[in-house]
Write the structure tokens for this entry.
Amino acid sequence: MLLSQVVATSATVAATRSRKAKVVAIAALLELAEPEELETVTSYVGGALRQRRTGLGWRGLAELPSPAPSPTLEVLEVHAAFEELAALSGPGSQAARAAAVTSLFGRATAEEQQWLRGVVTGEVRQGALDALVQEAVAAATGVPLAAVRRAAMLAGSTVSVVGAAFEGGEEPLAEIGLEVGRPVLPMLASSAKTLAEAVERAGGGIVAVDTKLDGIRIQVHRTGARIVIATRSLDDITERLPEVVEVARSLPSEHFVLDGEAIALDDDGRPRAFQETASRTAQAAGVRVTPFFFDVLHVDGRDLLTTPGDERLVELERLVPVAFRVPRVVTDDVAVAEAFVADTLAAGHEGVVVKRLAAPYDAGRRGAAWVKVKPVHTLDLVVLAVEWGSGRRAGKLSNIHLGARDPSSETGFVMLGKTFKGMTDEMLAWQTERFTELALDPATVGDHYVVPVRPEQVVEIAFDGLQRSTRYPGGLALRFARVLRYRDDKSADEADTIETVRALA
């Protein structure tokens, strides 16, 4: 299959708001794929590469060769090229990577180059989330959607089960089960602005209110002497967390699957900076982390995915000492829950998760059974530059560079990060016109991926937290920043200062 067929389908999916039309387009593409192409096509149409890391980013793709006049690239060729890129390391790898990019992108048409750049950087904005791809697999194979979803969550991905669905239909999918030692997609929480809203969405009555730790999501499998620790993206980090392995070996069972968080704490038991915890996903050395578990999926030969939450909590308490369980309160009293939230925030944690006690463990799904509540922080920042979008946002100025006022800086501002989150179609159209007007060099706006602008436009940004950063000169970066609104009522000299940001940190 030609890559151009995937790119054309991606454009079709991005151009429509109809969920049904998206599914039909994806299903038609999957039906055209050869068996050996199916996993790669499934991954690509979902907007992702099959490689976890390629060593490429925006900087490595800033300058591309002239595009090819006509499409010749095949999906398996592209997959092989990224496999080679991912394997590059050591002396000379930077030059080899640049040569490989030139070779691959030089064979791509302009549309394919744009799509490839988007998929490398995770910015293919086509609305083809994994749930839609699962619907397309069901539509193309005639397999019930529930069977596809169940198999994907237990196998760890839709890509892992698409071959079985096309080859044998529902029967081989039904044979896929929870296997201790093979990570499954974690259950996810939706969001609410207030505790009352979260309790209502979770069904009301008696609920569990868990402390939401700002750590690394971990899934710990033990079968005999073998321990496997996986992240929420199913990366194996067992060798990097020997202290978690030690805790797992100390528990009174040799067969279990636990869900939880690993977090670095200071001597007073308060959470350390998030990146100190996160750095342990890349190396075995560094600050010690402590595991805190909040759910159990399997114990002593019994799968608990369909078991109600309150029964799973009983098993969790039997298996895991309180020192390694996430703090929680089970109550139907709003005052008790509010007091727990206040204590949680005072202890330095980021919020709570309200859980319906009757709910099963719905792996890989985000629904109303778990609802997280986190306080929202906002800042008024200034747009310093903007990047051209891709996919649905092609032709629009999208990703904005955010800066706080800094009187000690030569420019008067210091960058804190970027975001394209929270932008409506109307906002994209408005800011494309606005930032074209503010461009430092209006005549070359369309010639460069990043467009520097005069620091005049104030934007109100919501964010979940701050972390130390060596990438930005201010030493801080926003976490999960998203646009709330543009503040035309404020001038740039009324924006928040870097000192205000540091005080929040």
User: Anything to note?
Assistant: Residues 35 and 167 are 8 Å apart (CA to CA). The longest strand covers residues 377-388. The chain is about 35% helix and 20% strand. The longest helix spans residues 19-32.
